[in-house]
Every structure is written in structure tokens, then in C-alpha cells.
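Operator note (shift B, R.M.): manual run for Fe2OG dioxygenase domain-containing protein requested after the automated queue skipped it. Running by hand, logging everything below so the morning shift can see what happened. Input copied straight from the record, untouched. If output looks odd, do not overwrite the archive copy; leave it for review.
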Amino acid sequence: MSLDKAVERGKDTSFPPMSTALVAETNGNGNGTGSAPSNASYRLRLNPNQDHKAENYDDLGLEFTPLLFSSLERYLPPNLLNVSRDAKYKYMRDILRRYSTEGERTRDQKHREYRQKIISNYQPLYRELYTLNPSTFFVQSFSKAFSANDKNRDESIRSIMSEPAPGIYTFDMLQPRFCDMLLNEVENFEKWVHETKFRIMRPNTMNKYGAVLDDFGMESMLEKLMEDFIRHISKIFFLDVGGYSLDSHHGFVVEYGMDRDVELGFHVDDSEVTLNVCLGKHFTGGELFFRGVRCEKHVNTETHPEEIYDHAHLPGRAIIHRGRHRHGARATTSGHRLNLLLWCRSSVFRELKKHQKEFVNWCGECKREKQARLQQSVTAKKMELLVGQTDGAAFNPR
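Run finished. Output pasted below as returned.
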């Protein structure tokens, strides 16, 4: 259960609107040794402490994603930042529980059991795929960009990126051998599903073919990929949609071809940031087409010429964009195309978004409306001044 879903359902007064200061009422003395406050007075801060080094919660048997706790920890009130990990965990857990129903927690538990049943019975073809290894996963240019020192890393990452259209970045990422191994692993998993008649969940409501990598053991590997690499890219290019606070993901492979999904309709992703990497095989067609970034209010508005961009897939080459960037996939006209997708989400951003102002700075249509309103205001002011000058001249004839 993520915080954004919880808050949307809860609307509890113990978590006031983010437009107010979310400072906890605690029983502590402000020196980091206080006890956790009563359940009714739990609060988070509006602005995170960016310098605070969060705890690691991976070793705890949690009902929520461990990375969510690490992300939320920076939003704790000052006098709770230095208490024990257990105290911080209980404080954040109780906040999250207030925004999740028992039914949602039950569904989450059933999904964990579903995953565990797969993992306990499926025998991986390549176990080395299940632990992130940059030297065997990534091409040299990608690995080298991230190995730069802290001072130069951002610039080093920028140097490997191409921006063929505003807000869309492409770069070489995966080694051919890794792509082949992952393709074979997915094929092996699909074979196991067919032989055992195990009913699996497909990646999303739009794709009838493909596999959720998280469901058969790759969750921790993909979480590491997001945390160590994609989140850093997103902090540079997608700060306006919570790129600094990505804390959960949905990782999957989609399959296209004449006997698979052929194309994908116009849509937006359920993510803040989407990574899409072509794995192969041999195919023609299947280009992605992009048509501008939109908020929920403007998702069906017209496309402007400068927002039109088509992207041709190349194996091993990645494309990364905002989840709200409207896009689709043209028909794969021959062969088979498989792509790895990682939808990265930020619970903190989704909560903040609920209390946003009238316009958001990442939506193309919001920007146009804001500019139009500003222009109207300037024009009205000029007319007001002009009328005032005309009236003044009429009462002061020479």
C-alpha cells in the first residue's frame, strides 16, 4: 500500500493538507531522544531534510515497501530524526496504516504470497540476473558515467544523454549479452507457466502478453537499479515530478509481434518516471510516438506541433521520460519485439500533488494556459493605462 493511495482513501485530519506546516506534536524534548507522539498527533514535515542520511529497512519484515520508509524518513520532524530506527519505523508505519484499509493490506499480503509461490517453484535459468551487477549488465559508457566522483557525476551523466525532444532522453544502457540472457529468462518463465498451467498476472491492463519481473524474483534487483541509477538520472532531469524521491517501482517485460500484442494505444503511465529499454529480438515497426506531457485535467487536450516525436527502438538503447508524457506504440509489422519497462513512483510527490496550485509546471497545457492568462492580464493593464491617459488628456485640453 503506497502513501498516495492511502491518503486518497483516508483524508484523515491527522494528516493535514500539505499547504500547511506538517510539524509533529511530540512528547520529546527536541534533542532526538523523545518518544513517539500519540497516534492522533502524527505529522510529517512539508519539506524534507535533504542532508539527513536515512536508515535502511530492507532487513525488516515489512507490510510496506522498505524504500518507502527510507524516503519518508527525511520528512520526519526534527526531534525524531535521531531516535532509534525501531521508533522511526513504528512512527511511519502507524501513519501509513491510518491511510490503508484492512482490505488493502489483505490484498497486499495475498500478492506477497502469490509471488512467494512462484519464487518457491520456478527455477531460474540465469541466477546472475537476480542480483544487480553493473559490470555485466551495463555498457561501458553508462557505467563510467556513474563512476565519476560526486562533484562531476551529474555532468558525467548528462554527457551520455541525448534529448531528441523536450523531456525525452535516450542513451545506451544494456549489454547485448544481458539482453539475450533476460530474453531467455523470460522465455523460460513463460515455458514454466505454460507447463504448470500457473495463472500469472500480466504487466498491466493494456498488455495481454509479457511478464512482471518483480513477481518471479527480480524485485530487489530492479529496486537497486531504480535506487542507484534511475533515481539519480531523475534527480537531474525530472525534479519537477518527484525524481528526487522515487521509492517504489513496477518492473516488467512486454512482448509485441503478430502472435503477441501488436500495438499499444495512446496513454499515460502510472508512474512519475518511466524507463523503457529495447531488448530485441529482430523486428520492424513498433516505434513509440509521443504527444506532450499532461496533468490529469488536460490529458485529453490537443497536441501541438512541437510536442510530436517518434522514437525507433534499438536493442540495448534506453529511453526515459515522465510517466505523464502521453505516448503509444505503433504496430510491430514483423518479427518479435520485447522491451524492459520500469515504472518508478514517488509516494511523497503523489501526496504533494494533491495539494498543488491551479497550474503545474510540468504540464504543457498548464504552461500555455498560464502564459495566456498572463498575456491577458498584461493586455488589460495596458488598456487600463491607455484609457487613463486618454481621460486625462480630455480633462486637460491645451
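Quick read of the result: The domain at 126-354 is CATH 2.60.120.620 (Jelly Rolls). DSSP finds eleven helices and twelve strands in the chain.
Leaving this for review. - R.M.
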